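Worked example (supplementary).
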Amino acid sequence: MKKAIVFKTLIDVFYIFHIGVPVYILLIVPLEAVKLDTGEAGLNNWTFKYWALAIVSSLTYVIFLRGLYFLRKVARRLLSRKYFSEEIITHLRKSGMHFLIAGSIFIFVQVLLWLSQLFVGQLNLSFEINSIAPLFLVIIGLFFIIQSNALLLAKDIKAENDLTV
Amino acid sequence: MPIIINLDVMLAKRKMRSKELAEKIGITTANFSILKSGKAKAIRFSTLEAICKELDCQPADILEYLED
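After joint prediction of all chains, the assembly is encoded as:
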């Protein structure tokens, strides 16, 4: 039970942090209270590539947040110890799907970036935790989907076991 | 389900109450009710054995197959 409480608390903190930071940036940037690092090209000189990248990344981030939102719902239901409830199974599946989609898009964008850098001969290969995070997101997403299938199977077995006299 | 439970018929023949049989075979009245109403998905051999022993009957007296 303690683990479920810690899990719920951590998910809440993580979720609030992730929701809070973009809201903070959206409120602060128009007032020019913070200076955004827009790379070598200034924000006004952004090409279509940069804008497309920013829009796709933002949309992917929204998908990730939605996945986190479903995971929060799962954490809330886990507190009531109803492990085989329909809600946990569907929300875990939805969370997994969102993480999988978000991770896949991030990887796709990263590969495109590498390819574009390769074509202009500026490719730098480096090992960063940020570059493997999307891969981890895909792994977690797949795990949640598999776990949801396992719970669905367990739910049916439990129902049968409960009705065995 | 095409399997019919004739427990109430056997109970009536032996003039025994459901609660009494449930206590004798060691299952809860709630579970016995599930079994009697035909909502059960499966029955353990040990439960069937205990029922047959208490009601002095054969499994076929309790379970019946009816084609859909």
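Two points are worth noting when inspecting this output. The interface with chain B takes residues 159-160, 163-165 of chain A (CB under 8 Å). Residues 46-162 of chain A form one domain.
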